[in-house]
Amino acid sequence: MISEFVRGESIRQVLTTLQRGKNSSGVIAGGTEIMRLGSRADYTNLVSLQNLGLDTIKKVNGVVHIGAMTTFTTIRHSEVVPSYLREAAGFCASFAKANMATIGGNVANLRDDSYLLPTLIAAKARLIIADISVDGTYNEENIPLREYHEFMDHFSDSLILAVELNRKDRVVLNQRFSRTAHGNAAITLAFGAQIEEGTLKEVRIAAAVKGTGIIRLKGVEEGIMDGQFLEPEDAAMMVGSEVAFTSDVTGSASYKKYLLSSSVADLYRKGLALAEKGGKA
Amino acid sequence: MIIHCTIDERPHTYSVRGKETLLQMLREYGCISVRDSDDAEGFAGSDTVIVNDVPVYANLMLAALAEGTEIRTAHSLSVKGELNAVQQAMIDAGVVQSAYNAPAAALLLTWLLEHNDNPSREDIKEVLSSIFIRDAGYEHYFLAVQLAKEKMEKGVYETQIAPEFRENLTYVGKVKSKIDGRQLVAGWKSFVEDRVEVGANILIMLRSPHAHAYINSIDIAEAEQAPGVITIITAFNCPDVYYMAAGQGNPEPSPYDRRLFNRKVRHVGDRVAAIVARTEEQAKAARDLIKVEYEVLKPVFTVDEAMAADAPIVQNGKAEYLSGEPDNLEEYNRGVDDREGKVIYPFPLHADNRHNVAAAAHGSIGDVDKGFSEADVVIERTYESSQVQCTPLEPHLAFTKIDNDRLVIHASTQVPFHLRRIVARVCQIPENKIHVIKEKVGGGYGSKQDILVEDVVAYATWITKEPIYYRNTREEEFIANSTRHVMKMKVKLGAKKDGTITSVYMDVRANTGPYGNHCLTVPMNACSKTLPLLKAPNMKFDVTTYYTNIPPTGAYQGYGAPKGTYALMTAIGELAAELTMDPLDIVKMNHVEKGYMLEILKSLGEGREGTVVPVGSCGLRKALDQGAKMINWGVMERSEDPEWHIGKGFAMIQQGSGLPGLDHSTCDVVLNTDGTAMIHSGGSDLGTGLDTISVKIVCEILRLPMDKVSILSGDTDNTMFDTGAYASSGTYFSANASLKAAQDLKMKILAEAALQMEEEESDLELQDPGKVVSTKTGKELTYLTLSHDATTGVGRGQLVGYGSFVTNDAAIPYGAHFAQVAVNIRTGEIRVQKFYGLQDAGTPINPELALCQMYGAAQKSIGHSLYEEMVLDEKGVCLTPDFTRYGVPMVSEQPEDFKMVLIDEDDDFGPYGAKSISEIATNGAAPALANAIHDAVGVWIRTWPFTPEKILRELGKIS
Fold first, then answer.
1. Which domain holds residue B710?
2. CATH topology for the A182-276 domain
3. A46, B166, B494, B529: which one has the fewest Cβ atoms less than 10 Å from its Cβ?
4. With contacts defined as CB-CB under 8 Å, which chain B residues touch A7?
5. Which residues of chain B neighbour A254 with C-beta distances below 8 Å?
6. Distance between CA A109 and CA A116 in Å, rounded?
7. Are residues B924 and B837 in contact, defined by beta-carbon separation less than 8 angstroms?
């Protein structure tokens, strides 16, 4: 039950509130997760990020900087945002919800059917994080997205200020599988790579697997980059050994395993085709 | 925290409490058009508002975040009752039906046109993506935007809204604004929740966590002492009265197998206690103090489990019969545990509750065994439907109070008169002590044919004399509402090499869940709305319904027909594959046509012998031919992407128009003192336009303009009896009663006019606008003068027309649905590329509303076929208790090319030739899609829903 609501006046004030409240304090971005039916969020103190200027998108020297409070709708209609992220923002099928849900909220919530995380991981996105150290100093860090999730506890008092996409030629391919557009996805998958001299480099494959979580298929990535998987089907074989699947209302474990394997192969195949064309769709 | 904002341009200051939502703030402010369909799921969009020029869900926004914002609601769209172009276009396009979130949709589309004066179909689709439309489908929303654009740009509509019928008629068959459209789209007070009085107490329910258990004790002592508590009702203090929740004709073809509260709970979510308190918070706090001791029993969930020799018995109570008691009843009831309660049969249903059999029926014509022996090919297949939910946007709710020492029930119901009868039984009071007021129904689809909440709320008010409001949560809608009966259907078909069907056998095993609502009639309907499509000489059916511990089932649009049609028409597809014939050729060879005597109907009455009638008006062949042409039947389509395979399928369909021999409607039409007319119809308009139909019919007969005729319907104090809106009865029964009442009033007007004008009745006729004219002398008498003179103290009194309609004649609607799908052989995904519905509705009295109901019903049944599914865990807990997990289709799931077509047929018995329209439209999708999937990828999917996973399994991609 919320007993205190604070309208954030500055980033520093938000961070101070978070530190003071520890686990009982949380930030509210778009509200679609905290306010929704069945939300697990249970904060007594909520601090709002509205009106802190975190809702802008800019591109400087080829780096796309997306404020944490930027909504899915804004991302979807931005000419600055790469098409793969615009496509992923479109996975949120509800217009009103997309007007409320934010990229920062989606990154922080780490849902197992996340709309954006697989794509952002595959894009090698980075986060701008702010915190206040024990001596009261305000800090901002630019960290890889994967680091944020690997060490989430470490960042519990931090605030995501922005998402950055700094790999301007990165190719990212997405797929999402749900029974209806508004339904929970069984699998959301993204395949990212740099294309250099007709080959795929720096491959990142990430998936949101319902019931399992956000996963990176490192073995498949390495196999592709090592040249171990010459055929897409070879890469697909590897998927099953990297992920533990569970059955739920979105589908059985065997269905999810098949779908992820098959789709990894499909996206790899499409990546190879793009590589052949020099990265042009 | 104090916030300042503007609401519809008016400054507002508000003290926000805790996690209060913007919706709560707006409701408190008086914005009743901002409604709630999903308890903050962020799905259905009834709570859509615009904040700082951005559409959002008010339920997902903290009220505290509204500081400094400009909030706009649907209230802002109309000024002093004058609708804006979008609102009017929505009415004219026919999409304002049950209309619970119509104001929200109007707000969204108005916002769209303010930002984009020429939106593309994709632009409109994007905006509609946050609104769940269950009744009218989405297709005519695109039309509404087009109409609004035209009106704003050119002052007139240029696009045709719908085809019109019957040139000789003025109102019937013509596109006219739905008479309650303005009230609904503007968001004025309409629904039960709008009638709740300040200070009303709140009732909430304590529900069972177990699927099957005895309640050994309930300790409510502490809860009763909690602040604000008024009463708590349990199995230990409720009336010992057995009844059934289905609002069916009396005597009902369903067992009385429940009390308000029972000593045994039979599904997760079953009622354990009702808590009435001053506030919801107090009721919830008291609920937490109730201590229940359960004795948990093993549950059964499927027909197969219920049939097992050692199956736990769901309804093992004492059997009693109100008529037709069997000889061995004493023996049958020996040793019954009192905690099981009773099962009382109004008449024998061929039940055996000791073996979980709730009801059974059997029948045949000809000799099926001989028919199979004469066949060249015999196939036998089994199909299963799943448990699907009606999901009305307005949940089940009721507001009850005492007025004039009588019980008043504001209800969202399809059956006000059955509701009164059942509540009278529960409260053990006569019907004259009860006044049921049917408010606007924000979506029913059959589930509001059942008395699911009014019984307990009304009883609570009767014993406390307190005003009480109850409203299901969305989760309760899933676990404690009525759903489609799950069915397992075996179909056996025999045919000659040339495709002539020689014999048909259907074995229907239905799962009625914990109680026997509609347990005989829904499964029978799987046969009675399918077998009469065929002129096979040998047909037989066996229907058996079983009790289990799944959430309750009941009536659902289409009743048993969608499942039976799925089974029979898919089996015909499989038969065609065996014969290597075109299934369309087989259907054309075997379907009935006008004049064919439907002998099979003799065995298919609802608990009594049915009436054999000939096929009347029948547009079936026209529907098949036109549909085949539209979809290029016989032409194979190919995708450029080798992963996607394309296929086509179809199904012929039928329904009924009410229940001849069982239904009864009455109506009166009063000539007011100024010459206008007032209709009092017992019928229940669910938003489908039944009231508009009655008004049109009366206008047509009395030659009055539509604004001179008003209607009051579904009010047990102020209208006469009507069995209610179910079984597609509204147009045929209730409107026929209106027609008879108008004809009666016409005769009385002519008789009175003859006296006043001193002319012969035979020389008089009624002419527009509301006058009597002598064809002999040219003299005229307006209704105003006529009525005035009849009621001035020296006249013969007010003129009232009375109509009572019963019949044994059937007005059967026919049709055909065609589908084209693309199936991805790698992922199993299915895209519905084309869906065409062609239906013979006789004379469509409201053509634009009829089309929208067809779109809505077809989209709903596409949802049932492909996406929707209630999933239970091993303990009977529903894993899909919200829209997102359950999987209703939204605009994203609408077929890429979606067309509904009205086939013109004039019926002999319907009012002005009309037949029913919307229930039949739920029957075609499942078999059409199943056949199309087979055509695309060569696999048969024999269970609902047809998921990608099932496709992949059938294709051998996963095991």
1. 665-802
2. Enolase-like; domain 1 (3.30.390)
3. B166
4. 64, 67
5. 958-959
6. 11
7. yes
